[in-house]
Amino acid sequence: MKKRKITGFASFALAACLLLSSCNGGSTASSQAADSAPASSASSDASSAAGTQADSEEKLIAATDPSKLPAAASGRKDTLVVGCADLSGIFNQLYASSADDWHVSIPISGSQLLDNDDKGEMIPGTATYKVSDDGLTYTFTLKDGDKYSDGSPVKAEDYVNSVKVICDKSYDGPLSPLYNYNLVGAQDYHDGKAKDISGVKVDGNKIEFKLSAPNASAIYQLGTIIPISTAKYGSLIKQGDVNGIKNLSMINYVTNGSYTLTDYKAGQSATMKANPNYYKGAPKIPTIIVKVVAEGEEMQAVTTGNVDIDDEVSCNDDQIAIGQQAGFVNMWVQPTLGYGWVGLNHKNDLFKDQKVRQALLYALDRKSLVNSVYGQYAHVQNINQTAQSWLYTEDGINSYDYDLKKAASLLQEAGWTKDANGNLTKDGKQFKFTFSATKGNAVTDVMLPMMIDAYKQLGINMQAEYVDWPTLQQKFEKQTYDMAFMAWGLTPDPDDSYVYCTGGSENYLAYSNPELDKAYKTALTLTDDNQRKAQYAKVYQIINNDLPNFIIYQRSDCVAFNTRIKNFACAPYNLIFNQYYKYELQ
């Protein structure tokens, strides 16, 4: 299950960052420095002990012999080949929902009003911005000279087009309508009661957004809007029917992004050409080909020269040793912007008792699991926020270290006792459930036998069922599972209330906690960073105590790239498809 489906990105801000979801010091790496730098301590002779939060930082494992670069790579003078797991062909960023497609959709769909830096902080993009003292008015001023790939000027009204698309009642993409963020008039536009969004005003090169109440997520949602050329595509934006935009071919799409799409071979590759009018300067590499690489063959594709860069190499000692042996491969190791977790279906009466949930987590040896699967390249995670975020905290957080005696005690407190056969029962009902998983998943292949054995010692009967990914996804979304393993992505916007709040759009846990609902709601009203940090600490403490799900780990990514790539830059909040315009070829 290597395909990086973006489950958990429910906001427009997803286009500004990625994933799978900060950066210590906001540093990046360059391959020029890599050519002479010593190998990182993350080499194959490093300790196999599981990492800690403190270990979660970017580090470069440098190439030692660039002369070994194969001819297959050195012969591509003006073309960069990027490996990815899959391509669905959905390259319009308003509809793209896969991180693999983002390799294409982000460069070609358009540039945002705001970007984010390597720490996830919002910074000017195609516009500067100002927020009123009352937090209700956001004014963006477009920078001079921004042009589309056909040479036509980018206008303020073009950004409003995207707002209309995602607020339209016919829009069925993954982005959240702006009426969820208090944009005045957005709901009326969605409902067909108004022909325009009254809270959006255009005055020359300025765009003004008016909110009905302060919302801390608004800056992420508004700032990451991309333009749609009114002159080229305005006729396709019809209130009540935006299928013209949805079905639009992205080949030769007129964009102010860094590249344009010129060719797509379904399920194989996509070819992009540099946009000479890109507002940050014409990209240095004329052609980029995004190429599908079979799962498990990512490092091989780099070491044979078939691809120049792949950001989905499994981050473990074996793969890193292969890259080091090749000599010409640099490896950039960085924390994944997200976490792996076990979902509990709260419709199942077994999981409704907090003490039971706590017992089940105490009985899961997460440290051994993480060490077995990822070694030093992951750590046990206890809250729903990346360890590098300015919001991250361990204050008041329970680590739930493996403790079967504690688990047994909690189950007894919850009224569960063993019968004559050693089965855990309560009110005549046996503690029995099914864990749904896909075969061949590195985590569940190790975790499920561990859970089955530990839970058996407690008298719990856990069975495993194996299904394909589409079936698992359907069971999860329709809440027809008992337990399942998933991965979640994070963005610079810390609001993930849609996952954990009652009735949240992606609350596939069927979980409800009024105290948590109130804590999230309060957090969204705060715009002062110190107040937000304190409030989100409350959010994380509630989740850590009540355990709507079991957060397991945060792992690291390994980006493998050969020595002909110069000006390499990558960070958890700024993955490679945000950096294409910076790269050069030697």
What do you see in this structure?
There is one protein chain. This protein is an alpha+beta fold and 586 residues long. The protein contains 18 helices and 24 strands. A hairpin with a 2-residue loop joins β17 and β18.
Strand content: 15-25%
Question: Strand tally, please?
Answer: 24
Q: Biggest sheet, in brief?
A: 13 strands, mixed
Shape: globular
Distance between the amino and carboxyl termini:
35 Å
Number of helix segments? 18
Mean pLDDT: 89
Structural class, by secondary structure, is alpha+beta
Low-confidence stretches: 1-49
Please estimate the helix content.
25-40%
Provide the gyration radius in Å.
Answer: 24 Å
Any descriptors?
13-stranded mixed sheet; 586 residues; globular; four-stranded antiparallel sheet; 20% strand; alpha+beta; 24 strands; single chain
Write the layout of secondary structure elements.
Blueprint: H1 31-36, E1 59-61, H2 71-74, E2 79-84, H3 99-109, E3 114-116, E4 122-124, E5 127-131, E6 137-142, H4 156-167, H5 186-190, E7 200-203, E8 206-210, H6 218-223, H7 230-233, H8 243-246, E9 259-265, E10 269-274, E11 287-292, H9 298-303, E12 309-313, H10 317-326, E13 329-335, E14 338-344, H11 354-362, H12 366-374, E15 378-380, H13 404-413, E16 417-418, E17 424-426, E18 429-430, E19 432-437, H14 442-458, E20 461-466, H15 469-478, E21 483-489, H16 497-500, H17 514-525, H18 529-546, E22 549-562, E23 565-566, E24 584-585
Parallel strand pairs: 2-11, 2-12, 19-20, 19-21
Antiparallel strand pairs: 1-13, 3-4, 5-6, 6-8, 7-8, 9-10, 10-11, 12-22, 13-22, 14-21, 14-22, 15-22, 16-17, 17-18, 23-24
Helix pairs in contact: 11-13, 12-14, 17-18
